Amino acid sequence: MSLPLEREEIQRITEELEVIIAAHLAWFKQINRTLVCGGPVNHVDLEADAYLRSPFGQWYYSEEPYVLENTPDFQNLGITQQAMHASARLALLSIVDQRRPAAELYDQCIDLALRLNTTLRRLQLEVIGELLTTDSLTGCATRRGMMLRLREERERALRLQTACCLCLLDFDWFKRVNDELGHPAGDAVLSQGMKFITGVLRKYDSIYRYGGEEFLICLPGTPVKEAAVVVERIRAGLERLPIRLRNGETHFVTASFGVAEMSPRLPVEESIASADMALIRAKEQGRNRVEVWNGPA
User: Considering the entire predicted model, what is its pTM?
Assistant: First the structure.
């Protein structure tokens, strides 16, 4: 899963899922007691649209588009929940007619309820995983899992015979920003600057906080000349971006960029090193520029 969300939004979704899981378990406990002990029947569960009227259904089928709606687990939740309520309804109708539900019907209802709970928990764990792989300040991915993703892109480039480029970028004179304007100003540079850069990239590009004020961009399916054009567009736009500071003032920053094509036959680390060499060259040439690695000068 890869969610383009701020850390606070991920935390909100995690807590929301916990509430839904608790509501589902409360329903599960009640329905099981009724089926086993013959307790009072909740007549809402006898309705054909019970799946819509339950707390889970009100959450799942809300009109507002849900950020998880395109994930496979989220889509499977609806299928499982509808089947669960359909089997629960049939089992409860047996209770209303003062008959014991068929064993296979009871098993089906319980199995579906347990499957729904398992899927909800798995979805919650996937969302929690985003907290570990997302930088809280910039919203970029962290280095956790970065190498695995880059190796996958290298293998895809080799398999499809397409190019893939890496870019290392470093905000210019960042220490000076922290020293002269304070760390909140430095945070504003990173958060607003990376929000702009992320908005320029395509959905299938990826960006990682490589360390401090240094970030790594992966551009799949992009030859080095095209990558240089994309990165130059980022550089020029960043240069014109007004960074809003807490005191209401505006600050402008620049960054240096090093681009290298990822070699499908060499370790990813060597391609990163090539991008790093290009970045060093950009700094040596005056900063606020894009350099492409073509080997030693």
Answer: 0.61
